[in-house]
Amino acid sequence: MNLLRPSSRYLPLVAALVAVFSAPARAQSLLSLYEAARAYDATWQSAKAQYDANLFKAEQAKAGVLPAANLAASDLRQHLGNDVPSIDRAYTTQSATVSASQPLYRPANFATYQQGKRQVELAEAQLTAASQDLIIRVSQAYFDVLAAQDTLAFVRAQKAATNEQLASAKRNFEVGTSTITDTREAQARYDLVVAQEIAGENDLRVKRLALDSLVGKPDVNPAPLVLPPQLPDPKPADVNAWVQQGEESSPAIQQARTGVEIAQLETEKAKAGHKPTLDLVASYNVTRNVGGSSSLPNDSRSKAGSVGLSFNLPLFAGFATQNHLRETLSLEEKAQADLEAARRNVAQATRTAYFGVVSGQSQVKALEAAEASSQSALEANRLGYQVGVRINIDVLNSQSQLFQTKRDLAQARYNVLLGNLKLRQANGTLKPEDLASLNALLVK
Fold first, then answer.
1. CA end-to-end span of the chain
2. Environment class of 250 (CB within 10 Å of its CB; exposed 0-12, middle 13-18, buried 19+)
3. Which regions of the chain are under pLDDT 50?
4. What pTM value is reported for the model?
5. CA–CA gap between residue 51 and residue 122 (Å, rounded)
6. Per-residue model confidence as pLDDT tens digits over 237-266
7. Could you give the CA distance from residue 442 to residue 444 in angstroms, rounded to a whole number?
8. 145, 208, 236, 382: which one has the fewest Cβ atoms less than 10 Å from its Cβ?
9. What share of the chain is helix, strand, coil (3-state, %, to 5)?
10. Contact (CB, 8 A) for 27 and 443
11. Residue-range domain boundaries for the chain
12. Are 426 and 351 within 8 A, CB to CB?
């Protein structure tokens, strides 16, 4: 729908719109910029390194249930001196011992091993949350740039239209068909739009810098939306279904649920303080005396090996075990409360995001209708001004209303698209593949 009727007078407006809305020659899609951010963003890299560290830490928990072996060796030079009987000689004692043990019954070690497995699950949930956060940050920066571009385009289009209206008011004043008031009103509106253009240029510059710093590329040109875009509906169209998905998929709930399991295992470890331990132990020792020993004057060599069971039963530890158990039971209750809080927060965030998308879609439809009405009102006011039944301020107000509506419509569309992503983030189902569907709405 054309803003102005095609004529040579409106060429500046048409040129402004075409220049800003034409697709960049080397525009980048949302998905490609997300991939760039994964390789550059420091926050994501930190989360990935923490994930790797958590995996290695979890592997350490296996040590308590696996065999352990040690090698010990010594080489001692000693001097023996005695007056009665007279003894004065030096000798060397060389010794090497290999020992090994295999836990047979250690409840605390086994609970620690199980905690290690849960730590892996916790690390995966944390990395998933970081990935979803990166998707939202990139998408937000992407749509912020597009919104700033649209705002600047509408301001420049309004500037061109206001400038044309100012020229018309000056011509009419010169021929005596309008008052100086029309010219001054048009000049004031033009000056205001110039100020808005300066602010819009700076806002776009800032938004571009934010996107560039996020993806690690200079002068990023995000691909604009195909107009009019086919905004996706939230599927399933039932908020309770989204909440139910969040119960299974939300990283926040998964972390809280894993936290409960880790707390329960910590309680098992505390209970193990009352239980005995049983290990299989073995050792082999070789000792060589060079130059004799404290009891023998000649060289000697001895070997000794042993295999057996080592049993330990704790009897009393100053009530430390009992108090530790009470502590872990309290922490277990805290973990259960944290899980319930996570469930409630996810459900609330999911419902809020869902109704935000539904409301945003209704707002888009209302603004599309308002755009058509504002366009008709502008054309009617412009025609009325030409025939003398409308004054210049009526035309200027109609122009401002139209461009304001266009800007609000563009922003509402971006909010719906971003809202769909935030809805999936809220219930934990957001994936990079969701950006691929948005790419279909962008200019290729």
1. 22
2. buried
3. 1-25
4. 0.83
5. 9
6. 999 999 999 999 999 999 999 999 999 999
7. 6
8. 236
9. 70, 15, 20
10. yes
11. 8-66+107-275+320-439
12. no
